[in-house]
Specification:
Blueprint lengths: L27 H14 L3 E4 L5 H11 L2 E4 H12 L3 H16 L7 H4 L11 H40 L4 E6 L5 H9 L16 E6 L5 E6 L9 H6 L1 H8 L3 E7 L5 H14 L11 E6 L6 H13 L5 E2 L8 H12 L4 E7 L4 H10 L1 E7 L5 E7 L4 H10 L7 E2 L7
Parallel strand pairs: 1-2, 3-5, 3-6, 6-7, 7-8
Antiparallel strand pairs: 4-5, 9-11, 9-12, 10-11
Helix pairs in contact: 3-4, 4-6
């Protein structure tokens, strides 16, 4: 994560903690040892992969004579560097202010000694803390008001999509699992896809046409991470609503990662927090085991065996090489195709417009042209577009009775 925002890592180590110290988190000996290392290498920033209290942060900064960031602070720095849209910047600022508000304690201790007045008023230090806290609260409320407008706008967009209506498929997964690369592979878009954490913060949506002719809206979302702070989940609620409202959630996993199972549990924990129960056979979550191109022969064989034991069966794919992408499209198509109807229609000569519409909006299963020029088309169609289909029939001067369900309608 540190390298993701171009920080040069001078040293890294694991520090076992038997009992965390309330004042400095680490014991005095370890604090002194790290202080010597920081001074020797002229380090300007120390990052602790743990939650650090405001008091601990202040004491460590004094002991080490450098800036100290905990895990949440680092994630916020990355988010701040990645947010591109106004909505993304608002969400990052909201999360940062919520985090910073608790860090005001004792920030102004150098002023607290300047007591005065009549004894019933706080000193300037306390006044400054309260002023900062009030300013933060006012800014937080303004941001929340703006984000409520974002939520309303998204609701209007979703209502508009429901009138179309195209099902929404959301990509979720651990950060750097390859979601944006998969999004680009499926849509032909050029969303930024880098080998780094949190490359995507702002949701992106594109239309995708599946083999049956069905159209879906594919949504790329922010990546999850272990120990994702609750404040961040709350701040990005507006973005994550696209996941909550999705008809199908594709959980993209880096199947080649040594901690892929731990990452799966972290993602499912966030999905559960959003009200989406992953792991059950009747869920709307479908796992995509990405980066199959990085698997060795033995690891691939084990992955295939594991797929046979999973329900629903995941899709093994590589967004980078294109392996398994057709299987993924068919799996998504099948999920939405349970209610599809298979119909047959005789199309008179000269009605190429109707035939073209069927090719664009349905899956053509069979097409035969008689000597008279009449085309017999057998096709699979989504009930959601049946209304438009009937409109096309009327335009062509055909009636609903001209459409029939063939004997081979179950496939």
């Amino acid at each position: 994560m540190a390298r993701a925002i171009d920080l040069e890592v001078c040293a890294a180590e694991i520090v076992p903690l038997v009992t965390p110290r309330p004042s400095t988190l680490f014991g005095s000996g370890k604090v002194a040892e790290i202080a010597a290392l920081i001074a020797e290498r002229e380090v300007g920033l120390a990052i602790i992969d743990h939650l650090v209290s405001p008091i601990q942060q202040r004491n460590l900064e004094k002991a080490w004579d450098c800036k100290v960031l905990d895990r949440t602070g680092l994630i916020l720095e990355i988010f701040g560097a990645r947010a591109l849209t106004r909505e993304g910047r608002l969400q990052v600022e909201l999360a940062h202010l919520s985090y910073q508000k608790s860090r005001l304690v004792r920030t102004w201790t150098h002023l607290e000694r300047q007591r005065g007045g009549f004894g019933f008023l706080g000193g300037p230090g306390e006044a400054q803390i309260e002023t900062d806290r009030r300013l933060i609260e006012e800014r937080v409320e303004r941001i929340r008001k703006d984000l409520r407008g974002v939520v309303k706008t998204r609701e209007l967009h979703r209502a508009g999509r429901k009138r179309v209506p195209f099902p929404v498929v959301a990509l979720v997964g651990y950060t750097n699992a390859g979601k944006s690369t998969l999004f680009n592979r499926l849509t032909g878009a050029a969303v930024v896809a880098r080998d780094q954490v949190f490359a995507t913060l702002d949701p992106t949506m594109r239309e995708v046409r599946l083999g049956s002719g069905r159209r879906i809206i594919l949504s790329d979302t922010v990546g999850f991470i272990s120990d994702l702070p609750t404040t961040l989940v709350a701040a990005f609620r507006a973005t994550l609503e696209e996941v909550v409202e999705a008809n199908l959630v594709l959980h993209v996993r880096d199947i080649s990662h040594p901690e892929t199972e731990a990452q799966r549990r972290d993602v499912e924990a966030v999905l559960t927090e959003l009200g989406i129960e992953a792991g059950a056979a009747d869920t709307r979550v479908l796992e995509v085991w990405n980066k199959a191109d990085k698997l060795s022969g033995a690891a691939r064989a084990e992955a295939v065996r594991e797929m046979g034991r999973s329900e629903p069966a995941p899709v093994l794919a590589s967004a980078l090489t294109g392996e398994g992408i057709d299987d993924l499209r068919r799996a998504v198509d099948t999920r939405f195709g349970a209610q599809d109807e298979i119909l047959s229609l005789e199309i008179p000569p000269g009605e190429g417009r109707l035939l073209s519409w069927l090719h664009d909006n349905a899956e053509m299963l069979d097409q035969e042209t008689a000597e008279s020029g009449i085309i017999t088309a057998r096709f699979r169609i989504d009930p959601a577009v049946k209304g438009k289909f009937e409109g096309q029939l009327k335009r062509a001067g055909l009636a609903h009775r001209d459409v029939r369900a063939p004997a081979r309608s179950r496939e």
